[in-house]
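Box 3.1 — From sequence to structure: Endoplasmic reticulum-Golgi intermediate compartment protein
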Amino acid sequence: MRRLNRKKTLSLVKELDAFPKVPDSYVETSASGGTVSLIAFTTMALLTIMEFSVYQDTWMKYEYEVDKDFSSKLRINIDITVAMKCQYVGADVLDLAETMVASADGLSYEPAVFDLSPHQREWQRMLQLIQSRLQEEHSLQDVIFKSAFKSSSTALPPREDDLLLTPDACRIHGHLYVNKVAGNFHITVGKAIPHPRGHAHLAALVNHDSYNFSHRIDHLSFGELVPGIINPLDGTEKIAVDHNQMFQYFITVVPTKLHTYKISADTHQFSVTERERIINHAAGSHGVSGIFMKYDLSSLMVTVTEEHMPFWQFFVRLCGIIGGIFSTTGMLHGIGKFIVEIICCRFRLGSYKPVHSIPFEDGHTDNHLPLLENNTH
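Predicted structure (token representation):
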């Protein structure tokens, strides 16, 4: 009984077989089928290689939400060279929320040479070229995010020429911590001093003819310092054409959380609008000579996450490629074979000529084909 039940079970399973085997004696091969199979296998191999390259690649996913963190401090990273001696200039931040000067103790004043060496000038040209490409092709920003900490440093390289050159400029570099509200970082004539109604600069002791706010921004960023990230103002150089000239940068800062397979950092992206004008009170152009960077924070926060295609999705796409090519090439081969057979059939029918009727003496005609006679000798 057990053997009988087993045979019934096996026969039932055989009836459910969706992949019946065809004996080799019933399979007919052809040159056209072999050609189509070769094309199909080649296409499958190429698409499989391309799909594998897509599987190895990663992409950046952008998510937006309201920034709810207003209690923490905002870090400002600064590296600016001004074409004036350090004793003539001062830098500070005016916090618009409390109308008071934020502490600028994190900044260092270092005498420097304003003109760049040939190697430094080449670095600056390369950085400006990258900046122009980033403005045209925004997708390059994803490449920069993924290469953070892996690419070379974007800092200005040290001078390779004579170090005994007389310093004619002041390099202001370091970082500041300010409240996460709109503010104004500025560099102007004279050192800043506290004032009950705000702040002031000791500019009366500086000769007006020594004003020169030509400057070079080697680095300016907000938030955590991430090596390899190129910011919009990195490599910017402005040359003043007048002693009384004001340079203004209007910056919108966007909090950004960066999560890649290499790093996780809380940084900030920003966009900037530039403006410069000559101070002339007689012509109605009022203001103070200097460099002013007015920044404001966006209420939205961007989360940038590096993502990778999961293996199950890659496997499903690969199966779809192989099965789709098999089905499509089989269908196209069948249609092509059907069309060829129809054309050949018509050609064969057209190759037969009609047989002429044979007249008889009584006026009738014989429409039958003549019989072949075998002459025997």
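Summary of the box: The two ends are 78 Å apart (CA to CA).
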